[in-house]
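Exercise 4. Each item below gives a protein and its sequence. For each, produce the structure-token representation.

Item: UDP-N-acetylglucosamine 2-epimerase (non-hydrolyzing) (Muriicola marianensis).
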Amino acid sequence: MRKKTLIVFGTRPEAIKMAPLVKEFQKYPEKFDTRVCVTAQHRQMLDQVLDFFEIEPQYDLDLMRPNQNLYTLTADIIIHLKEVLEDFSPDYVFVHGDTSTTMAASLATFYQGAKLCHVEAGLRTFNKHSPFPEEMNRRIAGVISDYHFPPTRKAELNLLEEKIEPKNILVTGNTVIDALNYSSGKVARPDFQDKEIDNLKNLVKNGRKIILVTGHRRENHGRGFEEICLALKQIAKEHPQADLVYPVHLNPNVRRPVYEMLDNIPNVKLIDPLSYPAFVWLMAQSYMIITDSGGVQEEAPSLGKPVLVMRETTERPEAVEAGTVILVGTDRSKIFLETDRLLKNQVHYDEMSAKHNPYGDGTACKKIVEFIDNLE
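Answer:
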């Protein structure tokens, strides 16, 4: 009898990291009845990823609403997933990481009585307020999960400290590397057509160092973003030979300070958020990356790109310890000084860009599917 697997996600980062798992399960239709449910916690950005990976969900809850809050989103996900779980009656439900979709789907799965499988399990900052609400989302999923797929040994140790049975844990590496390998190969093909990438080629000038900037996290809103913008302004002034390319998040708490403080600076290129393939292409062209994104901390080292992380804490300490990323928080002077060092000190840059990526070799999805296949 085929095992029934339901893969649930709702945001663009989840979609990117779960897409290769969907594709891997779909290789074995004789073993698995695999279905995809999207909550559409993000709508447009989610759809771009589904299109790129050629995934068509069997269930689309379409829950994104203007000015959505955590109360209504959590309730809506649980209520609407009830119908999906009752319709399909899956044996295994897969969730990813730390989103509100992950937390709410975990609860719904528990209520239904299916086995919960947590991809990218075991990440912890041990501060329930940072990142908010992600730290508590992943901890709740961890308590409910039956099977845990941490990306690293350190994440596994966190789970063991929480008394998770070793037989229910499999260290896999991060599925984002699987996605990156697929995506970077696809966008590099001569026959791949993408209007956004064509526009970026016109924006990015040959011979100039590209500093890719991304920033959106809730805990940085307000004074944090003002400090970030002041640092970027100083970098642009002190390094006119470099271009700062910043796809600006649509959240007005981000766009307002960014455009007020950085617009009209010649070597700061403020652009709209990019689709995943265009972002992968731009990462590959970049000299270095300044970000508050968790996923970028994992992806960039595989491309040999040093990363400065604009966060006070990270649930990905392996990257800090490996030397592939440096935590700079929202401290204006730290952001500038570390960027300045990477731009001026070639030995330091080469050492950082050559570090081994601690997040795996791109075989995470294969390991997960084999694990589920071998369960009784």
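Check: The two ends are 11 Å apart (CA to CA).
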